[in-house]
Write a structure and sequence with these properties.
The complex is a heterodimer of chains A (969) and B (158). Chain A is α+β, with helices and mostly antiparallel strands. Chain A is built from 29 helices and eleven strands. Chain A has an eight-stranded antiparallel sheet with strand order 4-5-6-11-10-9-8-7, sandwiched between helices. The chains are: A alpha+beta (969), B mainly alpha (158).
């Protein structure tokens, strides 16, 4: 008779907590895995779409060229934002974009579906394998084990259809360890090796309870899918890399960095997936230990499982830890009963969450725009919507994690906040995996240090706010109160969305419209024009819920009232004194904006009072609540002041504005200062009385500073309104690049003596004179060179370009012209390293202007048909060179024509070479002028911008010289 | 299923040796031994701690110490190592790694020196399998004692 047989079949509940409660949020960590997998799927499909040209990019480029829109134009954003060009752009790009959007959606759906299918198939397979695995043993030990299983199920509330099956399995490779397996919509099976009935009672208990914790958390299928996601990650990454193997030349595009990011994301996902699964095991361990009240039993099981470490290198051990789905037995033995080892919500997870959330924003934004085809009623809607969803993902992942961190008294906030901020910034700055071009803010700001710093400050502030809301929710009673959790998550999500949207708007405005004070006006105007100006109202509701769900509601009411009254007085008095002198829109705008800022500053000081006071909990939520309420109250007093003094009549709209703008500015102030106070969530408390005088004096000083213009650089300055309206007007009437297809007709001029119609039919002598003028217009180093034969290219791909080139050759040969001549000038390499340059000029005079125009039109159609092509290049890697041709601005004359930039790129043993040609075509009556400046560059795949300017300048100079010469008699 | 291994000079099979060891150091697990032996004879046992790929489940991740679960693979591995020390070449060992075969239950006759080597090997392998050092030593000693008894009985018979 052994000790085991004498076990009590109905054991007493552990001395610890019988129901430790379900820590929220682990499921959201799975959601993060889903997001990462989806991002990889989207990236892989986007790369495939691009590399295999599934959208026929050449046809899009041709279409855009037809409409005079150049993809390389740095102001393409203006083109897409211009109502004049939007229709053209959308008409050309929509088929491509829709295709890309659909392919991305398919990539996402296929990846996620595959993870789900793998979970399902492996679950079914496991069920089948377990069919004949039940032990044949019977006896008191077996019965006792079954009885304990039933008992623990009852205690865990796993009854009826929620109760799992117990399989006491005979020994074998498959069943040498306890595990639980499940399929969707079916009862799980807990598999326990039958030998475990010989374990000590407390040891068997923790094993049973560990498995029941998994069943109870209802995440078995999620965990299985997550487990598979780790493996699925690798083929998805391979799918992203595959195009590179098929078409190595794509590495020369932006695909290279994107691919690197895909690899990094893949690794991050693998580590994150393992971390989530480890966290799940820890939660189950904690549950088992707490319910059984048997830490020693668990420790014994964990210690008995300790194996000698096979990896001798510390780095290898660390790597193994990172990708392991279970904590090591040693770690489990050490952290008995602890639900977290500190990683959760720490630097790594917070950073990964930030990056993935912003990647999700970018992918979603791309898909929404692609699928909708620029037909949104509000152009910002896809971006705002995508950022809101990303904000929600960020909040639902991190806020619960930070709640647990707060609940367990973990004080390591700095790393968590820094991780979150770093992740958000990195997500913004790097392109999403699969993105062929940089997207979002980085596309515009590059790595300008000031905007990036601002982004970092806002990201940190948002993170601090998120941690503050999480801390507030963690203080709820009962713990993890559902409404408090929802309020905290919603508040954090809205804060992130509003802050990042505002910041993006301001940075973009700052770069595009470098007008002093523009951002200041726009910041206040956001409160009036954007949906997220309702953020403070929403936060007010959330903070109210958090406040109601937490104990200890004493407020320093006296101090708050005193500060609010002081703020109201300052706003009223400074307005009353100056209002009569404000007779210019600038002055009125400044006065009213200053008043708004005084209202906002009052709310801000009230929020700080709450944060510094010991009694109110949760301090962070109450601070938001109080700050917004105080600024709203002061705003209402100003509405009343205007009403009483007769400045304006009653209007509900006005009243709303008097509340909305100050609360919005309070929100802005709080967000910015949150970043400055990284330790806000555990700020040292002071007594309400100790804060009263400094706070009251503070609001008076700040109010006066605002009213006297001391804070002008941050709030409002004289002339802001005028500059703002002038910039808006300038933006509206700004000239756009001329469309070559819609250039004005030849100017009608009279020709004084000594001059002539440049469009007249020319003699060979006149053409020679005109071409000779080019040499006189250039520096003396330019020497006449040999004309190279005009041989048509062979072996051109794609076929559409080849047929166009062939057809043009035929037409050119059959062309009847009155006179024509071509000359070549050359510049030695010493004058323009590395290989010098050449300038090929020609003038062709046709029998009629219509023939001349048709000739140029043919050339233009060639540029359209051959936006991108390849042709044989002996000696080059792959045996071919890549050509591009795209419209490149005006010709520098008022005559019809166009300029193209032609590039020929190749690699020899991996080293790049490049030839660029800046070619202009101008038609003047009977005559066609063609100028082609050719410049070669070795060792890099792009030509420096200054050299490009030089080449274009040479072409324009030659054209101008010929036009001028033709105008002389 | 009865255990009727091929008898050799030692006159015993591995399951019998295992039973003797388990009876000595973990008698409450004797009840478990028949099924463990069946699994081992079917080649369906691995040493705890060996990593393996298994979809459709997330496992407990801990292997509580049970002598009955490890004794047969530990014994077989230790004896095989000692007996085949000089015989098995690299390719044979490599082949063995990839071949899942039914184990040979026969215990060969061992000299005292070989029994000593089996003892040492048993302890090392049991520790590698996650058995606590103290208990691994108990296993080693029990095996050694049993093998010595075999050796002396065999010598007496001669």
């Amino acid at each position: 008779v052994t000790v085991a047989i004498e076990r009590d079949a109905a054991p007493t509940i552990g001395a610890a907590d019988p129901d430790p409660g379900r820590a929220p949020g682990l499921r959201w960590m799975y959601a993060l895995i889903v997001v990462a997998l989806a991002a990889l799927g989207a990236g892989a499909s986007q790369i495939t779409f691009f590399v295999h040209d599934l959208g026929h990019v050449t046809s899009v480029q041709s279409c855009l060229l037809d409409h005079g829109i150049r993809l390389s134009d740095p102001a393409l954003q203006d083109v897409t934002g211009s109502s004049a060009h939007l229709g053209d752009f959308a008409g050309c790009a929509n088929p491509y974009n829709r295709g890309q959007g659909v392919v991305m959606l398919i990539g996402i759906a296929a990846t996620l579906a595959l993870a789900w299918l793998l979970m399902l198939i492996s679950g079914v397979a496991m069920r089948r394998r377990l069919r004949h695995r039940a032990s044949a043993r019977t006896g008191p030990l077996i019965e006792a084990a079954r009885a304990r299983f039933v008992h623990w199920c009852d205690l865990a509330g796993l009854t009826g259809r929620h109760r799992p099956f117990l399989l006491l399995a005979r020994p074998g490779r498959l069943t040498d360890q306890a595990f639980t397996t499940a399929l969707p919509f079916s009862r799980p099976t807990v598999v326990i090796p039958v030998g475990y009935v010989h374990l000590q009672q407390d040891q068997l208990d923790v094993v049973l309870l560990h498995e029941l914790a998994h069943v109870r958390s209802r995440d078995l299928t999620w965990a299985s899918a997550t487990w598979w996601a780790g493996w699925l990650n690798l083929p998805v990454l391979l799918a992203a890399i595959l195009p590179l193997l098929v078409k190595p030349s794509t590495i020369n595009t932006n695909f290279g960095p994107t691919l690197l990011l895909a690899v990094i994301l893949s690794l991050v996902m693998l580590i994150l997936r393992s971390a989530v699964l480890r966290r799940r095991e820890q939660a189950a361990d904690a549950y088992a230990v707490q319910v059984a009240g048997a830490p020693e039993g668990f420790r014994a099981v964990a210690t008995a499982s300790t194996r000698p470490e096979s990896a001798t290198s510390p780095l290898l051990r660390r790597l193994r830890t990172w990708v392991s789905t279970h904590p090591s037995p040693e770690a489990r033995a050490e952290t008995v009963g602890s639900a977290s080892d500190g990683w959760e919500g720490g630097f790594a997870v917070a950073a990964a969450t930030g990056v993935l959330a912003i990647f999700m924003f970018k992918s979603l934004d791309t898909i929404l725009i692609d699928l909708s085809g620029f037909t949104w009623p509000w152009s910002d809607l896809p971006g705002d919507l995508s950022l809101a969803v990303a904000g929600l993902v960020w909040a639902v992942t991190l806020v619960p994690a930070w709640m647990r961190r707060s609940r367990t008294g973990d004080t390591r906030w700095r790393a968590a906040l820094a991780g979150s901020a770093a992740g958000l910034v990195a997500g913004y700055l790097v392109p999403a995996p699969g993105a062929i071009v940089a997207q979002g803010l980085i596309d515009l700001i590059g790595f300008r240090i000031v905007p990036v710093l601002w982004l970092a400050v806002i990201a940190l502030a948002v993170s601090v706010a998120g941690a503050g809301f999480a801390t507030a929710a963690a203080a709820s009673v009962p713990r993890y109160h559902r409404s408090a959790v929802i309020a905290a998550v919603a508040a954090a999500a809205v804060t992130l969305t509003a802050a990042l949207t505002t910041m993006t708007t301001l940075v973009v405005t700052h770069i595009r419209t470098p007008v002093s004070g523009f951002e200041r006006v726009l910041l206040a105007a956001q409160a009036d024009s954007e949906w997220f100006a309702w953020t403070p109202a929403f936060l007010l509701i959330c903070a109210g819920v958090l406040f109601a769900a937490a104990p200890g509601r004493t407020l320093p009411a006296g101090t708050l009232a005193l500060v609010t009254v002081t703020g109201a007085l300052i706003a009223t008095i400074t307005t009353q004194i100056r209002i009569h002198g404000a007779d210019h829109p600038d002055a009125i705008f400044m006065l009213l904006t200053q008043r708004d800022w005084i209202c906002a500053a009052t709310g801000w000081v009230c929020a700080l009072v709450v944060l510094r006071s010991a009694t109110p909990r949760p301090a962070f939520a109450v601070a938001i609540l109080t700050g917004a309420a105080a600024s709203a109250v002061v705003g209402v007093t100003q509405y009343v002041r205007d009403l009483v003094t007769g400045r304006s009549g009653h209007s509900l709209h006005n009243l709303v504005e008097f509340v909305r703008i100050p609360t919005w500015l309070t929100f802005v102030l709080l967000v910015i200062t949150f970043a400055a106070a990284g330790d806000l969530v555990r700020w040292r408390a002071a007594t309400p009385a100790g804060v009263r005088i400094p706070a009251t004096a503070g609001v008076a000083v700040i109010g006066l500073a605002i009213a006297t213009g001391v804070t002008a650089p941050l709030t409002v300055a004289r002339g802001d309104w005028s500059r703002f309206t002038a910039a808006i007007t300038a933006e509206q009437i700004r000239n756009r690049p001329a469309d070559p297809a819609t250039l004005p007709p030849n100017p009608v001029v009279s020709y004084p003596p000594g001059t002539a119609d440049p469009g007249r039919a020319l003699t060979p002598a006149a053409i020679t004179t005109a071409l000779a003028s080019v040499r006189h217009a250039l520096p003396s180093q330019w020497k006449p060179g040999q004309n190279s034969p005009n041989t048509p290219q062979k072996g051109v791909r794609p076929a559409s370009c080849a047929s166009k080139l062939d057809a043009d050759t035929v037409v050119e040969n059959a062309q009847v012209h009155v006179a024509a001549k071509r000359t070549t000038l050359e510049l030695p390499d010493s004058a323009m390293p590395p290989l010098g340059a050449s300038l090929i000029t020609s003038v062709t005079s046709f029998a009629s202007p219509a023939d001349a125009f048709a000739y140029v039109n043919d050339a233009r159609e060639e540029a359209v048909a051959c936006a991108q092509w390849t042709a044989p290049a002996p000696g080059a890697d792959g045996g071919r060179a890549e050509f591009t041709m795209r419209a490149d601005g005006g010709t520098g004359t008022s005559y019809p024509g166009f300029r193209v930039l032609l590039t020929e790129g190749w690699h020899v043993n991996g080293a790049p070479g490049l030839v660029i040609g800046s070619q202009s075509w101008v038609v003047i009556g009977h005559n066609v002028i063609s100028v082609d400046t050719v410049y070669s560059y070795l060792g890099r795949a792009t030509v420096p911008a200054n050299r490009l300017r030089t080449v274009r300048g040479l072409t324009d100079t030659a054209v101008t010289a010929i036009v001028a010469s033709l105008g002389h008699d | 299923m009865s255990i009727e291994g091929t008898r050799t000079d030692s006159g015993r099979t591995l399951p019998e040796l295992a039973r003797q060891v388990v009876a000595e150091i973990a008698p409450d697990e004797l009840e478990q031994l028949p099924e463990a032996t069946d699994a081992w004879l079917a080649g369906d046992v691995r040493l705890p701690g060996d990593r393996r790929w298994l979809g459709g489940s997330i496992r407990f991740g801990l292997d509580p110490e049970l002598v009955s679960a490890v004794i047969l693979p530990v014994l077989a591995s230790a004896i095989s190592e000692v007996v085949n020390k000089s015989g098995a070449g690299f390719w044979q060992r490599l082949l063995r790694m990839f071949r899942r075969r039914r184990p040979d239950p026969a215990v060969p006759a061992l000299t005292a020196a070989q029994a000593e080597a089996v003892r040492t090997s048993c302890i090392a392998k049991a520790i590698a399998a996650g058995v606590a050092a103290k208990r691994a030593t108990l296993i080693g000693e029990a095996v050694y004692g049993s093998l010595l008894r075999d050796a002396s009985a065999s010598g007496a018979a001669e």
